[in-house]
Design brief:
heterodimer; A: 230 residues; mainly alpha; Rhopdopsin 7-helix transmembrane proteins; 8 helices; 75% helix; 0% strand; globular; B: 134 residues; 5 helices
């Protein structure tokens, strides 16, 4: 049974994501950052779906657990699309974005296969454990890919302020969730994990902030981001 | 074992991404010139802001109606400010130069809070002007 805090977290995430979509539409960034809109819409649909499954089957049911973990894995894949969109923006002038996207897709497929292999070869073959392991690994691959992208942005002296903030916010999100899932795998029985969903607020809020406060044409030297007091 | 390794790496990257994100927010805010009104109301004299003014500015922020979008950023900056406070406590006796750098960073956090306050003051004035017009 969920308490008022759980419902508050759920409604907060839902409203924040809805607001972020509205801001993207208002700022006419829909076409330029289509993958972000796609992710947010998928996340909204997932939130609604989770609520429906929860209301029909209950919090402790297997159906809710399966739906929760698998929808989380699907959302992570949508986040990979967002990341690939960022790669396209950064490498747009070099003409290698297709190669980068192909590599990222291969990595994504490889992660799913490795996660499946790890769980299939273990003694307790639980599907939810596979989903949990897959989420941890997908988020970690997300961390690695975002880190590589950030490194490339520094090397290429990327100076688009908004793009920098969008990528960094995604890096914070991936790292926070990869760390949380890793801790959850180590200590699975703690009650605290259900409140960690609040981290999900970070991404739509920071993206909304970037779209609202940072104009598209704003530029900033990369050195100022690495050491702002210069 | 793998989970522990993933946790350790994720924690380090989280710190790095978070600190760099805060840097980007501070650097972007530096372009914004604080208005005289904002300086007057917040009691900030001309010249660079000091780290110890951050808390007062955050308290003032809480008193202003929010135009939307910056409260989580101010909270993120508060977390960064606290992180810097802990780092300062750890290094102030061993490395005075690092201590000085940390103080400049805390001043940057105060500047972001002042910019947010400036925006909120402008928003409040605009709302008052609109109400007076009706």
């Amino acid at each position: 049974m969920l308490g008022p805090v759980d419902y508050l977290i759920w409604i907060t995430i839902f409203l924040v994501e809805l607001s972020c979509v509205a801001i993207l539409l208002k700022k006419r960034a829909f076409t330029q950052h289509f993958t972000i809109v796609l992710y947010l819409l998928a996340s909204l649909a997932t939130s609604a779906g989770r609520y429906l499954v929860l209301a029909t089957t209950g919090f402790t049911s297997n159906a809710y657990a399966y739906f929760y973990y698998y929808s989380d894995a699907v959302l992570t894949i949508f986040l990979f699309f967002v990341l690939m969109g960022f790669y396209s923006h950064v490498f747009s002038e070099m003409g290698v974005s297709k190669m980068v996207r192909g590599g990222a897709m291969l990595l994504l497929g490889g992660t799913a296969l490795i996660s499946y292999h790890m769980v299939a070869s273990s003694s307790d073959r639980l599907i939810t454990r596979f989903a949990n392991e897959l989420s941890q690994n997908l988020y970690f691959v997300g961390v690695v890919l975002t880190y590589l992208l950030w490194g490339a942005m520094m090397k290429l002296r990327e100076n688009r302020t908004r793009l920098m903030q969008l990528v960094l916010a995604l890096g914070v999100y991936f790292s926070a969730f990869a760390g949380t899932y890793a801790l959850k795998n180590m200590y699975p029985n703690s009650f605290i994990w259900q409140y960690f969903q609040l981290i999900a607020v970070w991404l739509p809020v920071s993206w909304a902030y970037s779209f609202m406060k940072v104009p598209e044409e704003a530029r900033m030297a990369t050195a100022r981001v690495l050491a702002p007091n210069q | 074992m793998i989970a522990a390794l993933i946790f350790a790496i994720s924690f380090l990257t989280l710190l790095q991404f978070f600190v760099t994100y805060c840097h980007s927010v501070i650097a972007a805010s530096r372009r914004h010139e604080l208005s005289e009104q904002a300086r007057e109301i917040s009691g900030v004299a001309s010249g660079p802001l000091r780290g110890d003014q951050f808390r007062r500015l955050v308290q003032l922020l809480a008193l202003c109606p929010e135009p939307g979008g910056d409260s989580i950023q101010v909270r993120a900056l508060s977390a960064y400010f606290n992180l810097l406070g802990m780092a300062r406590s750890a290094v102030q006796w061993t490395s005075p130069s690092a201590s000085q750098w940390i103080e400049t960073e805390r001043g940057g956090c105060a500047y972001v809070a002042a910019v947010a306050l400036d925006r909120r003051i402008q928003y409040s004035r605009m709302m008052l002007a609109q109400q007076a017009g009706h």
